[in-house]
Structure formats: C-alpha cells, structure tokens
Design goal:
By secondary structure, the protein is α/β, with parallel strands linked by helices. It contains five helices and five strands. 36% of the residues lie in helices and 32% in strands.
C-alpha cells in the first residue's frame, strides 16, 4: 500500500468580541502548493473558530493523508497532545470536574476527521515570526462578518 500523502495544515481563529462575530483561516500545503481557506460566523467564540479552522482544513482533503497541524490555540492542540479529547469521549463528553465539555459538536466532528487521517498537532506561538500563522490570522480576521451599517 502506498504511503499517505504528507500535508501541512496551518490554522487560526479570531473573534471580534468573545462571543461575537468570528472568522477562521487555514492554509493547506502539499508538494509546495498552498491553498488558503477561510470563513466566518455572525455570532461565535474564538475557541469555536480555532476548532472550525482545523475542521475545514481536514474536510478539504480528498483522501486520507498524513497531516501536521500547526495552531497557536492551546485549547485545540492540548486536547489532542495531552489526550483530553479521548478522556472526554470516554467519559460521555464530560471533563474531570464532571461538567460538560464546551463545543461538543465541533470536538466530535474533529475527532472523527482525525480518525480518517494520521495527524500530529504542533503548537506555534501566535502573533510571532511564523509567516503561515500570521497569514492564517489575517485570513481569519478578514473573514469576520462585518456589522451591517
């Protein structure tokens, strides 16, 4: 069986007010070719937009891939790197304090997508010297729906 295609995915989310209007941005990189994705919602949270960026990036893949996901969201990265998401699923989507996990719909969706691909999450420092993270931030901010005037 052939090796899975290697893809790099950079993601970011942004919100104007939290909650408020929000946007997400993602950049897929395969064989040196970059594809930018973005979208927004009129009323959401920053964490939902961070998750949505990863979801939309993975949904854009046409077949199972090996994906390195770079995000400045500790919320997103730590859920996988520290295994929290697997504990949440096992415990009926409840945290260790027995409170419901926020954004269950998105976590469930993301967990399913990560089962289709070989994924590795990597934390990057936000608003620093990473050009791709900065571009994702610009995409996310640019996708925030504007208030009607």
């Amino acid at each position: 069986m052939a090796d899975k295609k290697r893809v790099t995915l950079y993601t970011d989310g942004a919100c104007s007010g939290n909650p408020g209007a929000g946007g997400w941005g993602a950049i897929l990189i395969f064989n040196g070719v970059e594809r930018e994705l973005s979208g927004g919602e009129a009323y959401t949270t920053n964490n939902r937009m961070e998750l949505m960026a990863v979801i939309r990036g993975l949904e854009a893949l046409k077949y199972p891939c090996s994906v390195e996901i770079y995000s400045d969201s500790a919320y997103t990265v730590n859920a996988f790197v520290n295994g929290w998401i697997f504990d949440w699923e096992k415990n009926g989507w409840k945290k260790s304090d027995n409170k419901a996990v926020l954004n269950i719909d998105l976590w469930k969706n993301l967990l399913q997508l990560t089962k289709l691909h070989d994924v590795v999450f990597k934390k990057v420092k936000g608003h620093a010297d990473n050009a791709y993270n900065n571009r994702c931030d610009a995409l996310a901010r640019g996708a925030i729906p504007k208030e009607p005037k």
